[in-house]
Every structure is written in structure tokens, then in C-alpha cells.
Automatic annotation (TrEMBL):
Residues 1-26 form the signal peptide. Belongs to the peptidase S1 family. It comes from Xenoophorus captivus. Keywords: Glycoprotein, Hydrolase, Protease, Secreted, Serine protease, Signal. This is Serine protease 23. One of its GO terms (biological process) is proteolysis. Its main location: secreted. It comes from the Eukaryota. Gene3D superfamilies: Trypsin-like serine proteases (2.40.10.10). GO terms for molecular function: peptidase activity. The keyword Hydrolase applies.
Length: 404
């Protein structure tokens, strides 16, 4: 026991040294959020649709035969294609389904998806390798977050669990961003989507003081850059407090029939809760190119199935990218899909560091190409048009959605 304690203390001391290295020692320049003018996506006409059948269980992972090169070779969607892809369905808690056509204003389809971050071509592609262990790439670098002082503290407190088994992220006073496949399988809404609930992790026991013995009070600010793994004690008994969803918005780009073969580009959905959750939420942001992210690093927290009752945080380097997707090797398991992928950069206007959701973790992708297997974990990027759409769903007007 004494030897184990010494090893734990030594490991944690090493982690603290790495975590608390002053940022000024870094040779890389401070990365900043750059606000840009956002196009307008407005609903035009809404009509009733037949009641869904809710046939299949939700799949906690998705698959696509299209690898990064396949996505990059796909033709750019036209203005009319985008109107079709960004049209959306709304599932109401009483079982009614509506479809809404949209108009797009102030958008140049020939410009970069993120003109404010334009700095030439995206970063060079990183070659993928065959992996034997599904969704865990080499050493498992995930962190299990435990203890009330951390689970209920921002940014970990924005992670929620869906009753269909996925994860989600608080992006408004009563809004949750998640993956479309968590509520719709591409053909039909899944079982449980009509009575969808969102779970907020809480402690059964009030006393979580022991967790502060292991972690610094500002651990959430430093863990995001930490190079080492740490799993706090996880013997607290956990429970979820559930809130019903009032509406669920899913873009038609995800729903088969209107989508091209690259439906993963639109694997996102927004849930509106029946009552406010009263927690701090995370702001949306337009996804910068990976090369503009600090260390090319992305972060997300979710409820991986192999760690029941635990919130799991991870970060990793973003690899290849297309205009709509990030490819990366963040360690994850089914259940984490739907998590909000975020970045932490400097807000020059407010003079502070700020985290913003820049994507949605879609899941694992296995591609067979020329007789070899390639694996990726894929996240859907929030482009200016997607930002305009999701922001309108949250705010209910376009005036508050012109900068992102």
C-alpha cells in the first residue's frame, strides 16, 4: 500500500509540473477567436409530415465507406443543394413531425467555409495506420472525471447524456447539441426519440471532498493541455437527473433520400428541453482550420459505454479535415458520440480565454481502401451555415446570429 501511494504521489507530482508550465514559455503564438460575418438561414415554409414509426434502436456509432480523400473529391454543393440539405425536420414531444424549408442569404458558395480564418490551404494530411483495438488508438489517453467539485464545474458540467445512449452538450439555456444519428438512423426516428430525455450527472452523496485532495482547484483549465493521463477516484455513487425534450431538430442533409452519399457531413441535431437546465452552457463557434487551433488540439467529454456512470474527457490532435469534417484519433467508445467538440482560444474582445463548441463528435469510421483498413474518429465541423442554422434554432431570430 505504501509503495502504491508513493507511485501515485510521484505520478501526480509529475502531472502537476507538466500542467502548470507557464504558457509564455510556449514558442507558438497565442491563438485567437476571430469573429466573422455569418450568413442568414431563415425558415420559409413549414408543413406537417406523417407520424414517424420509431422502428429501430439508436446506433451509438456510425459508418461510412467514404474516407477523407473521397470527401475532398465530392463536388461542392450548389446554393439549391444547400437549401435542400439545410432544410430540417422537427420532432415534437406529442409525436407530431414537421418539415421546414429554408432560405439562405448573404452566402457566397465559392468562398472558404471559414473566410475569417483563411490562411491558404488546410494543414497537410496525416497518414492513418491500421489499428487493432477499435476506437482506442494505442495508449488509452482518456480521463475519468469524478467528484462533485469537478463534475458540476464548467466545462465538464456542460456534458449530458441522452436516454437513447449518446452524449450531448449544453449550448443554450434549454438547448442541447448532439449527433443526428442519436435520434434518427437516416431512414426513421429511433425508439425513444419521441420521449427523449436528457440526463444531468449528479452525486448521490454530498461528500466529495476526497477528490480535491488529488486535483488542483483550477484543474479544468490545465487538464486540457496536459500530456499525461489521470483518472481520479471513481467510487462516488452517481445518478442522472432527467429533463424531457420538447422539440428535436434534424437537418435534411442527414436524412436519407435528400442526402448525398456523404450524410455524415450533417450528423448533428439540436434538442430543446421542456424547462431550463439552470447550468452554464458553452457558446457556439465557427470551426477554424485545424492548423489554427492551439496545438491543433480538440477536446470533448462524454459518457463512454465502457465506463458506466463516469464522465470521460479526452483531447487529441486534429488530423485531416474537409470543409465539413475533422478526422482525429481521440480515444472514444460508443456512447461518446454526440459530444460537443470544443477548442480553447483567446478572446481578444473580452480579453480572456474562452471555450467554444466547434463541432459534434460523430463516431468511429472504418474504411476499407485498396485492401487495407483505415480507422478514424470523425467530428462534424460547425461551418458558418451550420452556425447560422443552429443559432437560429436556439435564439429564434437571425439578428443575434450574425457574428460567430
Amino acid at each position: 500500500w505504501f509503495t502504491c501511494s508513493l507511485l501515485l504521489i510521484h505520478r501526480f507530482a509529475s502531472l502537476l509540473c507538466l500542467l502548470f508550465l507557464p504558457p509564455v514559455l510556449s514558442s507558438s503564438p497565442r491563438r485567437q477567436w476571430i469573429l466573422q460575418r455569418i450568413p442568414v438561414v431563415l425558415p420559409q415554409q413549414t408543413k406537417a409530415r406523417p407520424t414517424p414509426q420509431f422502428l429501430n434502436e439508436a446506433r451509438l456509432d456510425v459508418a461510412s465507406p467514404c474516407d477523407p480523400e473521397c470527401h475532398k473529391k465530392a463536388p461542392l454543393p450548389s446554393y439549391w443543394d444547400l437549401r435542400s440539405l439545410l432544410a430540417y425536420e422537427t420532432l415534437h414531444s406529442d409525436g407530431q413531425l414537421t418539415e421546414t424549408a429554408i432560405g439562405i442569404y448573404g452566402y457566397n458558395p465559392y468562398s472558404s467555409t471559414s473566410p475569417a480564418y483563411s490562411s491558404g490551404s488546410f494543414g497537410k494530411a496525416e497518414r492513418s495506420h491500421v489499428r487493432k483495438k477499435r476506437q482506442i488508438f494505442g495508449h488509452d489517453g482518456r480521463f475519468s472525471i469524478a467528484g462533485q467539485s469537478f463534475l458540476l464545474k464548467y466545462p465538464f458540467s456542460v456534458a449530458v447524456k441522452l436516454s437513447t445512449g449518446c452524449s450531448g452538450t449544453l449550448v443554450g439555456d434549454r438547448h442541447v447539441l448532439t449527433a443526428a444519428h442519436c435520434v434518427h438512423d437516416g431512414k426513421n426516428y429511433v425508439k425513444g426519440a419521441q420521449r427523449l430525455r436528457v440526463g444531468f450527472l449528479k452525486l448521490k452523496q454530498r461528500d466529495a471532498q476526497h477528490s480535491s485532495m488529488y486535483l488542483p482547484s483550477n484543474f479544468s483549465n490545465h487538464i486540457e493541455g496536459g500530456p499525461a493521463q489521470y483518472s481520479p477516484p471513481a467510487n462516488d455513487k452517481m445518478k442522472f437527473q432527467w429533463i424531457r425534450a420538447k422539440r428535436t431538430h434534424v437537418p435534411k442533409g442527414w436524412i436519407k433520400g435528400n442526402a448525398n452519399d456523404i450524410g455524415m457531413d450533417y450528423d448533428y441535431a439540436l434538442l430543446e428541453l421542456k424547462k431550463p437546465h439552470k447550468r452554464r452552457h458553452m457558446k457556439l463557434g465557427v470551426s477554424p482550420p485545424a492548423q489554427r487551433l492551439p496545438g491543433r488540439r480538440v477536446h470533448f467529454s462524454g459518457f463512454d459505454n465502457d465506463r458506466p456512470g463516469q464522465l470521460v474527457y479526452r483531447f487529441c490532435r486534429a488530423g485531416e479535415e474537409t470543409s465539413d469534417l475533422f478526422y482525429q484519433h481521440c480515444d472514444a467508445q460508443p456512447g461518446a458520440s454526440g459530444s460537443g467538440v470544443y477548442a480553447r482560444m483567446w478572446d481578444g474582445r473580452r480579453r480572456r480565454w474562452e471555450r467554444k463548441v466547434i463541432g459534434v463528435f460523430s463516431g468511429h469510421q472504418w474504411v476499407e481502401k485498396k485492401g487495407t483498413s483505415q480507422e478514424f474518429n470523425v467530428a462534424v465541423r460547425i461551418t458558418p451555415l451550420k452556425y447560422a442554422q443552429i443559432c437560429y434554432w436556439i435564439k429564434g431570430n437571425f439578428v443575434d446570429c450574425r457574428e460567430g
